[in-house]
Amino acid sequence: QVDVAAMVQLFGYVDVTDTGFIVAVLSIAFNPLFWNVVARWEHRTRALSQVFGSPHAACYCLGAAILVLNCVRSHCFTEAMKSQPKLEGWDCHWTYYSGLAISAIGTLFVISSFLALGFTGTFLGDYFGILMEEKVTSFPFSVLDNPMYWGSTAIYLGWSLMHASPAGLLLTAVVAISYTIAVLYEG
């Protein structure tokens, strides 16, 4: 049997009806939905490539839009955490530095993924007909499938721990669920 007492206690610290929390959930869910719908639409129609004059220009514009949306998501995530109570027992050096370490590992995965894939590889270039010479199997892909998604999730987890935020932990779970659905959809 599963002891749900800890989860019930955690939910006692989170107001899921708070407007900021709801906006954060919506922004987290919207991002992968947006880029998957737009990329598949481009793959079927080549409309963005025609509008922007080339597949590369269209891919760079989509990548820029994704980066802006990620900044909005991170801002909403942070504001939702700040508007909710901290878990006082976690507001200590040990939790802060654990969160910092988890965020650093996540950042390593995100940055190394980007360096291995390049801009167009990271931002759905294959849907624009921009294909890589071969599948990337070097680090971090040699140790983890979808390292950009799981690195990003780790960053949010670390950020939540650094702020001793139960709301952040719940939002991190939403990030993980959104990415899991995206992986299933993309696969």
Automatic annotation (TrEMBL):
InterPro entries linked to this entry: PEMT/MFAP, Phopholipid_MeTrfase
Leading EC class: transferase
One Gene Ontology molecular-function label: phosphatidyl-N-methylethanolamine N-methyltransferase activity
A single GO cellular-component term on record: endoplasmic reticulum membrane
Domain of life: Eukaryota
Membrane topology annotation: Multi-pass membrane protein
EC number(s) per entry: 2.1.1.17, 2.1.1.71
Subcellular location: Endoplasmic reticulum membrane
Protein name: Phosphatidylethanolamine N-methyltransferase
